[in-house]
């Protein structure tokens, strides 16, 4: 049995990682600012007899050193999440995400840690997705212009010739282009983890989560995913407001699949590449999600409304190639989309 420290293990994804570890026969220790580990309901934190909890801050040296005592592996989930579009929060994002990671890695180095480390990253490090131009091959369009968005022209054009592009899956070798504060901190976490791995020889794998959904997902916060926003509207008797034309594509991956990917990365027998996409491999539109949630809640609920509204910082399409995760970890998403939406609606 391996004893694994899960930072942020009382949160949405972290608590599911804890569940998967315990189910797989591993011991789990949680380091989190919260006192309990979430179980069936997102609004309940329950002390678990089968999980040791260290309440504290990953940015505090003494707390981290205590939490690391006797562990064989580390699963680093602790982070401040969200878009990070308000620069008033920039210092908080850098402190929680980058400084927290640095303090953890320093403690591992000082303790001559030789186990496995898995770090939670995000698809936001890519910025806009990957596109194919008929004339110029793979291209990377820049941010969409305000005039185009206001005119309802949501698809990014080829930066070389202005032609219509085909969106294709993003592989891990795509250039990174973080477009908000949160994205910048997640990429920096990856860089810190890679530097630690080079200096120490410790195996570190960064998992780039795509759009994670599932039970215990927080609602009504600035950091909630679009599924939570839609569900909150439906619960209030309002129509979910679908921005742009609803055709923007994402990869919605169930949190249990994400948790399983973490366990596979921790159990992998050999060192793995620095970063791997963790996604379903089946892209859906935002409109698809809104309609699936509407169907799960019931026909009496308000139907989604496509509004044409937009946020200038949003990307149009970003969905993943999962070939590397399949090859390196044996990871294949198992959760059904419709069933997952129904479960989310009932949670």
Q: What is the element layout, followed by pairings?
A:
Layout: E1 3-7, H1 12-23, E2 27-32, E3 37-38, E4 45-46, E5 52-55, H2 61-68, E6 73-76, H3 90-110, E7 116-122, E8 130-133, E9 137-139, H4 146-150, E10 166-168, H5 181-200, E11 204-209, E12 211-213, H6 226-235, E13 241-242, E14 249-250, E15 252-254, H7 255-267, E16 275-278, E17 284-285, H8 286-297, E18 305-306, H9 323-329, H10 337-346
Mean pLDDT metric: 91
Q: Can you tell me the residue ranges where pLDDT is under 50 for at least 5 consecutive residues?
A: 40-45
Q: Which structural class matches the secondary elements?
A: alpha/beta
* Straight-line N-to-C gap: 32 Å
Q: Helical region count?
A: 10
Approximately how much helix is present in the residues?
Answer: 25-40%
3D architecture notes:
The protein starts with a strand and ends with a helix. Helix content is 34%, strand content 18%. The protein is globular and about 60 Å long. It is α/β, with parallel strands linked by helices and 347 residues long. The longest helix is centred in the N-terminal third of the chain and has 21 residues, at 90-110.
Quick overview:
The chain is α/β, with parallel strands linked by helices and 347 residues long. It has helices at residues 12-23, 61-68, 90-110, 146-150, 181-200, 226-235, 255-267, 286-297, 323-329, 337-346, and strands at residues 3-7, 27-32, 37-38, 45-46, 52-55, 73-76, 116-122, 130-133, 137-139, 166-168, 204-209, 211-213, 241-242, 249-250, 252-254, 275-278, 284-285, 305-306.
């Amino acid at each position: 049995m391996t004893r694994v420290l899960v930072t942020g293990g009382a949160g949405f994804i972290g608590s599911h990682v804890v569940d998967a570890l315990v189910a797989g026969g591993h011991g789990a220790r949680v380091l989190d600012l919260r006192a309990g580990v979430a179980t069936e309901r997102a609004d309940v934190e329950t002390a678990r007899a089968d999980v040791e909890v260290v309440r504290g801050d990953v940015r505090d040296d003494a707390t981290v050193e205590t939490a690391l005592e006797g562990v064989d592996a580390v699963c680093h989930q602790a982070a401040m999440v969200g878009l990070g579009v308000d620069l008033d929060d920039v210092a908080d994002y850098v402190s929680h995400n980058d400084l927290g990671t640095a303090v953890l890695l320093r403690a591992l180095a000082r303790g001559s840690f030789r186990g496995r480390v898995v770090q939670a990253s995000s698809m936001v490090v890519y910025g806009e997705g990957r596109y194919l131009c008929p004339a110029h091959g793979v291209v990377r369009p820049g941010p969409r212009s305000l005039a185009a968005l206001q005119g309802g022209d949501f698809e990014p054009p080829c930066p070389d010739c202005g032609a219509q592009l085909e969106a294709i899956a993003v592989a891990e070798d795509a250039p990174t282009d973080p477009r908000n504060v949160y994205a910048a901190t997640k990429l920096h976490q990856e860089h810190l983890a890679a530097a630690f791995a080079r200096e120490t020889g410790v195996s570190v794998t960064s998992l780039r989560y795509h759009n994670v959904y599932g039970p215990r997902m927080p609602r009504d916060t600035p950091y909630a995913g679009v599924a939570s926003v839609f569900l909150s509207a439906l619960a209030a008797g309002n129509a979910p407001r679908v921005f742009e034309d609803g055709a923007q594509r994402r990869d919605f991956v169930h949190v249990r699949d994400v948790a399983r990917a973490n366990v596979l990365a921790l159990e992998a027998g050999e060192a793995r590449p620095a970063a791997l996409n963790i996604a379903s491999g089946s892209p859906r539109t935002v409109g698809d999600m809104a309609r699936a949630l509407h169907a799960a809640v019931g026909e009496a609920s308000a139907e989604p409304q496509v509004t044409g509204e937009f946020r200038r910082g949003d990307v149009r399409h970003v969905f993943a190639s999962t070939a590397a995760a399949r090859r390196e970890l044996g990871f294949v998403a198992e959760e059904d989309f419709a069933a997952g939406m129904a479960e989310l609606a009932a949670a």
